[in-house]
């Protein structure tokens, strides 16, 4: 499904075919064909930089992605639900980013920050449950966040590392998912 | 010298050429060691942080995803620099002080 393929590239940011396919459990061969088609249309490009090779969404691809997501919201009637979930998420987001920063900077409140992240996951779980009733593609964030927290109990780098599915990486992706779905620009 | 001010998001200093990146279509223009200057960032921008000597954004602050990612890569970050894309010149030499939250135009 082209919508899921483009959206996977959007969420992952920069990823190879296998990762794009895995994001929404799609067939890798089908996804490769869709990515090539999307490349012909100027929606994605295959790039190599910073030691990575992968697919990147273009400006035109971003517009197409948001149009397909808007169509999905119209088709499912989920716009008001996603808006409400986004509002609740935004309240948690400030606290989560602050807590991630406290842990990175090894502030004295690190233990409190870890507790706050656990509370944020607890607050997110019912929101995710409501979302996946109409938009199943939002499934999986709670599990990823919990897994990162469990790993972080032994290795705190699991909170903000960029080279694994850390707590911040999953949370950042969730934030991107919500604003992409609603067509909101970052910083607004 | 012209000095722009923003939020000190990650300590450290760096000097380099400002590379103004307006979106993913321009990622290929970015070279290792340059200072990434942009409006905002999302997950796609993370690999650029690995190449950049510093980052300057127009939006965001201490409580932003860009601040978290900059700290992970250990690069100076000054965020929320108003009109940075208009006031800085692509390729111009700048100095970034991530502790003071300043961006100094060296050519001016």
How is the secondary structure organized here?
The complex is a heterodimer of chains A (188) and B (108).
Chain A: H1 2-12, H2 17-23, H3 28-40, E1 44-49, E2 52-57, H4 59-76, H5 79-104, H6 110-134, H7 141-154, H8 167-182
Antiparallel strand pairs in A: 1-2
Helix pairs in contact in A: 1-2, 1-4, 1-8, 2-3, 5-6, 5-8, 6-7, 7-8
Chain B: E1 2-5, E2 7-10, E3 13-20, E4 35-38, H1 46-51, E5 54-57, H2 65-73, E6 77-79, H3 84-87, E7 93-97, E8 102-105
Parallel strand pairs in B: 3-4, 4-5, 5-6
Antiparallel strand pairs in B: 1-8, 2-6, 3-7, 7-8
Give an overview of the whole structure.
The complex is a heterodimer of chains A (188) and B (108). By secondary structure, chain A is mainly alpha-helical. Chain A has 2 domains: 2-66, Arc Repressor Mutant, subunit A; 78-182. In chain A, 69% of the residues lie in helices and 6% in strands. In chain A, a hairpin with a 2-residue loop joins strand 1 (44-49) and strand 2 (52-57). In chain A, helix 1 crosses helix 2. The relative contact order of chain A is 0.11. Chain B is of the alpha/beta class. Chain B has a single domain (2-105), classed as Glucose Oxidase, domain 1. Chain B has 3 helices and 8 strands. Chain B has helices at 46-51, 65-73, 84-87, and strands at 2-5, 7-10, 13-20, 35-38, 54-57, 77-79, 93-97, 102-105. Chain B has an 8-stranded mixed β-sheet with strand order 1-8-7-3-4-5-6-2, covered by helices on one side. The longest helix of chain B is centred in the middle third of the chain and has 9 residues, at 65-73. Chain B starts with a strand and ends with a strand. At the A-B interface, helix 1, strand 2, helix 5 and helix 8 of A face helix 1 and helix 2 of B.
């Amino acid at each position: 499904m082209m919508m899921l393929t483009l959206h996977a590239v959007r969420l992952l940011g920069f990823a190879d075919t296998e990762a794009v396919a895995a994001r929404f459990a799609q067939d890798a061969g089908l996804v490769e064909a869709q990515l090539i088609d999307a490349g012909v249309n100027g929606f994605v490009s295959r790039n190599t930089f910073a030691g990575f090779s992968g697919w990147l969404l273009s400006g035109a691809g971003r517009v197409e992605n948001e149009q397909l997501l808007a169509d999905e919201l119209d088709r499912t009637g989920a716009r008001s639900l996603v808006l409400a979930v986004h509002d609740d998420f935004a309240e948690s987001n400030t606290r989560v980013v602050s807590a991630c920063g406290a842990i990175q900077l090894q502030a004295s409140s690190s233990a409190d920050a870890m507790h706050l992240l656990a509370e944020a996951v607890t607050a997110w779980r019912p929101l995710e449950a409501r979302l996946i009733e109409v938009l199943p593609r939002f499934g999986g964030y709670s599990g990823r966040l919990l897994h990162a927290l469990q790993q972080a109990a032994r290795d705190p780098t699991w909170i903000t590392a960029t080279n694994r599915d850390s707590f911040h990486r999953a949370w950042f992706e969730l934030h991107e998912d919500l604003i992409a779905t609603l067509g909101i620009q970052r910083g607004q | 010298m012209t000095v722009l001010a923003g939020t000190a998001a990650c300590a450290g200093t760096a000097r380099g050429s400002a590379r103004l990146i307006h979106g993913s279509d321009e990622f290929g223009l970015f070279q290792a060691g340059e200072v990434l200057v942009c409006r905002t960032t999302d997950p796609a921008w993370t690999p650029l942080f690995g190449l950049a000597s510093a980052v300057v954004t127009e939006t965001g602050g201490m409580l932003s995803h860009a601040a978290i990612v900059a700290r992970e890569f250990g690069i100076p970050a000054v965020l929320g620099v108003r009109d940075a894309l208009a006031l800085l010149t692509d390729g111009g030499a700048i100095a970034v002080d991530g502790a003071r939250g300043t961006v100094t135009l060296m050519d001016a």
